[in-house]
Each structure stands twice: as C-alpha cells, then as structure tokens.
Amino acid sequence: MRRRLTWRAARLTGLREETDSARTLVFQVPDWPGHLAGQHVDVRLTAEDGYSTQRSYSVAAPADGDTIELTVERVPDGEVSPYLTEIIEPGDQVEIRGPVGGWFVWRPESTSPVLLVGGGSGIVPLMAMIRARRQAGSRVPFRLLYSLRDPGRRYYAEELRRPDAGLDVGYLYTRAVPDGWPRPAGRILLDDLAEGGWPADFEPECYVCGPTGFVEAAADLLLALGHAPEHIRTERFGPTGG
C-alpha cells in the first residue's frame, strides 16, 4: 500500500545564491522519511488570511537526515517562487510534503553508466544524482550534458568545476557562449549527444530533465542514436505560475 503523504513544517536554515534569479534553500524537516535522488516535493505557503498555494520542486541533494535542499528559479508574476527567491529568511517556515516520484530516480546500487541531460533548471534533480553518487562513494561513470541559455545561468557553477573522478561535464549554450567557445549557440543536436554521451551499446541509464520541448527533442535524439526506450527516463516541466 502507498503511504499517505502528509504536510510537515519546514524551517529554513540556510540559503545560497546560484544565479541572479535562482537560489538554493536548505530546510530542516523534523521526521523527514528520506528521499531518493530525482524525487521532488510539494511546497505550500499559507497567508495570514488563510489563502494557500503550492508548487512542486525537485530535491537538489541526496537524503541527509532531516535536511532537504531545493533550488528554485524565480518565475515572473509567480505566487511561490518570488517568495522563496527574494523574501524568505533563515528561521522562516513553509510546509513540505513528499517525497514524490519513483521512476525518475537514481539508486546508488545501480552499476550501469549514467548519462544526465539537463536543460535550464532541469539540472536540479540531476545534481541530486551527482551528489548521491559522490555521497555513496560509487565508481559508476557519470556524464552530464548541461544546456542553458548563457553562462550566467549556470547552477552549481563552482561545484561542477571541481575535479570529480568518473564525472564528465559538458555545456551547451542556446543564446550566448563564452569567449572562444568552440560550439556556436544553438539547441541540442544529434552530434552533441553522440560526442558528449555514451554509446548506445554501453546500455547507459539516461535521465533527461528540462522544459517539455527540450526533453522531447533530447529523448528523440537518444532514440535515433540507438538507445533503448526503457533506458531513457524523462522529467519535464512547463509554466506553472511559480
């Protein structure tokens, strides 16, 4: 039987700015049941007049006791993300429910090579997988292909620059590239996945996350390269009002 998800009080204990419009929030959630890398949670805000609203956010780090990390991108005119990215301060509380999802997850006992393909804020659950691999001391080889509009929108920039044995990171830019960047700006292409991913005969587990159009395009390209459908796991998001 499925366990019933309940709302829990979550207290903000720390935050880190990722970009001009995104930040990572660290919450303490008493009696948190734990979660897997790739899962997400619901966050609920309630106003003094009783009005409440909620949004779903991917968890950005593996389970660590009663601590949860979320990375949130501000959505213009949103109801939840502006509060989480501009107003909330350490000590403030929200409500969190979860974890949610069981398909788009990576488990440390897995031995297959892993290809992570992220578009924009779709990097968040993929970063949880990278961190879970490191936390577990896994030697499974990971490759990350991270597509974003421009270098200023990189999440986890410093962390992804650090040497990490068995983790290869490649970037694609769709609007503007750094000076001297060898690839022109543009959307993800077959050659990008052929060069930056794993050969299909390695039978890697492929995780693709980002906006719907990006996810559909990347999944189709992986299929064209011969990857088996059952090895391609996707998570997509679209406008929700933030």
TrEMBL record:
Keywords: 2Fe-2S, Iron, Iron-sulfur, Metal-binding. Coiled coil: none annotated. It comes from the Bacteria. Its cofactor is FAD. PROSITE patterns: FAD_FR. Residues 5-106 form the FAD-binding FR-type domain. This is Ferredoxin reductase. It comes from Nonomuraea guangzhouensis.
